[in-house]
What does this fold into?
Amino acid sequence: MIKSYKITTLNEYIIRRQAEYPYAKGELTRLLYNVGVAAKIVTKKVNKAGLVDILGNMGNVNVQGEDVMKLDVFANETFISSMRASGECCGIASEENQGIITFDDGLSRDANYIMSMDPLDGSSNIDVNVSIGTIFSIYRRLSSRGSKAEEKDFLQPGRKQVAAGYIIYGSSTMLVYTTGNGVAGFTLDPSIGEFCLSNPDIKTPAAGKIYSINEGNYIHFPQGVKNYIKYCQEIDSQSKRPYTSRYIGSLVADFHRNLLKGGIFIYPQTRKSPTGKLRLIYECNPIGFIAEQAGGMATTGEQNVLDLVPGDLHQRIPFYTGSKNMVEKVKEFLEKE
Ligand code: AHG
Ligand code: MN
Ligand code: MN
It folds into this structure.
């Protein structure tokens, strides 16, 4: 008796879910397929980073004023060329590029979708072998098909996302994404080079025990954040310390752990980043869409991240996301102040 083929690959899953969208003509399917291809190429490079001398700075600095690690550039170029090759994407906004990148060949100009991305999230962790990631967000274009993508295509509120996801290059490589009908997680099986369905319907616990924040900035936090941290550190009636602090310094890794276990991630205003550090378009919106689809929340502390109308491609906002009860709690502390 032939052993049944138990795994569901990313492509099988995307095609199966496509059947749920009567209007879907396979365009988004092809786009997501190419995200998977780019993720496998970057995984190979990440796994060998220490060997093929792609560590260390390229000596230049990106639009954010940060040293660009070689892997940042490699990941950026890999996702850009894979999206161009898909023929379903007419342009990209990337953390690594000041302005939008438009794909001007005939096929791409006719495409229906645009992508915003953080090609390599957590770059400060590249050299020390700590998990890093890629974050992506897909929208239907506003500009007319057949023309070049325009900046307005990328300044849509997060609520308009067609799909969003991240890849985490950790002890294993995982791809987690949503198209607005729940969140699915896939783990790369390098022996067959396929992303295999490992977390079919991710729901984040309403409450958790983990709070993630860079307490090095404590003295500059808003008072409400300081009060929430103290609340997390108080001994409760059973004289137990209910919370634990975990901070990796890669948004994707901190968020992914909290998503599965329950927890809250906070990057508030600090002296160095007076409007917050994380970028609305290619970090907070995609992560926020996933958080909401998994039953969690994402807020600036004042309003839901997905309702914001972006002002510019690299706009930064204060970011609170994760388990619903925990985000509601920190909002209470913020509103009291
Ligand atoms: P990126 O490497 O894409 O610039 O993102 C880094 C971000 C995010 O991944 C992480 O949560 C945050 O920066 C960490 O910032 P601090 O080092 O200031 O805590
Ligand atoms: Mn990032
Ligand atoms: Mn980045």
Remarks:
- The helical segments are 10-18, 27-48, 70-86, 106-109, 223-233, 251-261, 280-293, 324-336.
- Residues 210-336 form a domain with the D-Maltodextrin-Binding Protein; domain 2 fold (CATH 3.40.190.80).
